[in-house]
Each structure stands twice: as C-alpha cells, then as structure tokens.
Amino acid sequence: MSRYFIKLAYNGSNYNGWQVQDNTPNTVQQVLEEKLAMLLKETIEVTGCGRTDTGVHARCYYAHFTCRNTDLIENNTHWVYKLNTVLPSDISVFLIQKVKDDAHARFNASSRTYHYFLHQLKNPFIEDLSWYQYGFIDFELMNKACEILLETKDFTSFSKLNTQTKSNICYVSEASWMQLNETEWCFVITADRFLRNMVRSIVGTLLLVGRNKITMSDFRKIIESKNRSEAGMSVPAHGLFLTDIQYPEELFL
Questions:
Q1: For residue 47, what are the domain limits?
Q2: Does residue 252 lie within any of the structural domains?
Q3: 226: which residues sit within 8 A by CB, 6+ positions away?
Q4: Could you give the residue numbers annotated as active site?
Q5: Tens digit of each residue's pLDDT (9 = 90 or more) over 123-147
Q6: What is the pLDDT of residues 197-225, one digit of tens each?
Q7: Which of 72, 87, 112, 125 is 20 to 30 A from 227 in CA distance terms?
C-alpha cells in the first residue's frame, strides 16, 4: 500500500462543502472518492487538508489517500488525465504525488492562505465568485485593523460556536486588503490553521471598521471579548477561496 497526495481545485458553488457528512449528499470529498474508486477498482478513502463550507471554493487543495496501485507515479500524467475526464467540470486535479506513509494532508500543513473577493461595481461575470458591496469603504483603515490580527493569538470571537475544536489559538502571519483594480479588492490571510467560519467573520467585522460603524478600539475589544456575538456578520461563502497550502518538503518522496 502506498500513500499519495492529490492536488486539486474546485468551484464550490454546487457542493455542500468538502467533507462527507451524514444526510448531506453531494460533497467534493464524496465525488472524488467515488471517481478514484471507479478508476483504481478499490475502495478509496480521501482525507482533505481541511473542511471548506458550502459554497466556498478552492484554487489549491490537497488531500491524501492510500491504495494498492503502484502505477500512479510512473504514469502520473495518464492518471491525472483519466481522473479529470470522469470528474465533473467544476473539480480539477493537477497532480498526484507519492508521500511518506504517515503523511497527513491536514495535520502536516504548515500554513494555509485564503482570499476573499469583494467588488464595488456590479459585474455579472464575477457575481458568483465575489461579493458585491456598494458605497464607501475605507480600505486603508481596514488594513490598520489587520495589524491587530497579526498580534492576535486567540480567535474565539471569529469562530463558529459549538465546534469540536480543542483550541482557538491560531498564528496569523499575513492579513491585508489588496486592490486588484479600481472596483475590485481581495482580502488575503495566511495562518498555520483556521477555525470554522473564521475568515468570513473576520471580513464581516473588518467591514464594520471600513464603514466607520466601529472604531479600531472597538475592533480590539471584540477580539478580547472572545465572544462570537460581539463580532460582525459572516460574509457570504461565494467570495471565499482557499488559495495556497504549504507542507514540509520531507513529506514528499
């Protein structure tokens, strides 16, 4: 038996998130497992690098699986092509890599990066992949608030309630708003790990700062309160993308 990492991307619009759940059909994990099992002619269980919620997208996503087939690397291009031919058009595989037997797509990830897209001029061509927000937003002020995120360790105020997470400590190494053009912006955040709903609730709270509904002091107090009800709304899922995951090089064979 050999273990493999598979690198893929997906448009999450039509899926109930990544993870297979009881009584929740049509997840990315489910589709990938079914297609791998069909091609490899054995039962395949895929473990993802994290769970993305319903409607969230991934430009870079890693998962691992174990199988008896030893031809996946020798004929890598062939297998990637075959898998892409049976997968739906909104899921695409880029690479299959052999890794150490104990390599884990979730627990061995050293960092993850998310992008949240926002546009201020109505545009039918990006409507499903970016959140439309009309009116003045002070992005410079929001970037000052982002500096507070870099100092923060406990992100309880931005976590979905009643999760099974044992710790709400995260180490954020990057957080800022980047202007793409005159009307489009992207929030970029990198951390070692993320809590459920964390990025979307951070964006919702930053927008309160950007619209001058709360002060910088208020933003800091929200974080210190460790109370999700004090923070802003969770912004819509369709603007959120998982865009990068980093792993230690020694995992790969």
A1: 2-107
A2: no
A3: 154, 156, 157, 168
A4: 53
A5: 999 999 999 999 999 999 999 999 9
A6: 999 999 999 999 999 999 999 999 999 99
A7: 112
